[in-house]
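User: Predict the complex with P-hydroxybenzoic acid.
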Amino acid sequence: MKRTQVVIIGAGPAGLLLGNLLDKHNIDNVIVERQSADYVLARIRAGILEQTTVDMMHEVGAAQRLVEEGIKHHGVNIAFDKKMESIPLGASTGGKVVTAYGQTEVTKDLYDLRLSHQSAIFYEASDVMPHDFDSDSPSVSFTYHGQAYQISCDIIVGCDGYHGVSRACVPEKAIQTYEKIYPFGWLGLLSDTPPVAHEVVYGNDARGFALCSMRSLTRSRYYIQCDLTDHVDQWSDDAFWDELRRRLPVELAEAMVTGPSLEKSIAPLRSFVAEPIRFGRLLLAGDAAHVVPPTGAKGLNLAFSDIHYLMKALSAYFADGDDSALTDYSQAALARVWKTERFSWYLTNLTHRFNDDPFEQKMKEAELAYITSSEAGRISLAENYVGLPL
Ligand code: APR
Ligand code: PHB
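Assistant: Here is the predicted structure with P-hydroxybenzoic acid placed in the model:
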């Protein structure tokens, strides 16, 4: 293949969703991915979907399994001071809820849909490189099965994650980046055990943050705040379960069903935004453009909202060559990105231990008491947790 309308770099959830939506709108596209399909499909990430994310899975035609297997959550729990408070989601948000359904499953559903379209997707492509995106004739080159390819196109979309090549090839003077690295990591454990609570629990304890989540009624996902210097091999399953229980209110700790880990890993926490996210004929989306810390599970949801704005821009661009639609993309997507960055940063600050000075710690305790006891506080948390409107 020598030419297409859109080359998408990266086949994570952002790239796959975009490719499927473009297929649906009869806009010709090619996806180029560095890793193998097996590798991409095995990655374990968060699993709480906003309503607009679920809506987009419906729109693209990939929601069948999500409807059958996703678990709707009508509330979210905040634990602190050895007590747990439940915050209802629907009452203050016009009935919106979130759905527990793993990002791994979202990726698989989008992958299966893509295969059914038989549109081009190159896995295990190496040396992927965007070219001439400041001109009217951009292209993407790569090596696939030992053969060199160069595909010319109208638009390149970088959906290649934080470490991808797309953002890296933008001239330094054309882009501004904002970043915050948090001084701790998350140690996560997946197990075939029933979840300890019906809905997600965010726990702030003197020993550190703890999170109880789920993938199904028989599969749980738990996290604890850990030191950045910790190595996963230092944490036996028993040590993880003991530490998790110590950080939770007694009733939860006693109800916890433990079991062998299916997966255990440590992830760092980062807030990052690039501005703008359109450079001529190169547009960035998802983790290539911004990263949130996992508190609040906004990463996938934000990638999906980018694709919502991007589809609007690309539809206008291909319908009538409207170049300003591409500029609008950057502004529209980033307006929502910054608000969601704020919420992810806020929830991280509120629920983690930073070796704060005693005054800062007292402020967090007061904030926790406020948002769980005041209606205005609960509404603010709920409206951000279910996802701000697109
Ligand atoms: N060439 C081609 N593909 C690349 C390159 C490259 N140089 N660099 C990275 N990729 C691929 C990665 O292998 C990965 O499959 O781009 C994909 C990016 O996928 P994600 O990192 O999942 O990013 P995104 O699709 O934006 O999804 C955002 O998913 O990854 C989580 O934490 C993230 O929750 C967030 C959401
Ligand atoms: C998860 O289920 O993995 C999860 C849930 C909520 C979060 C982060 C991760 O805030």
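The mean pLDDT is 96.
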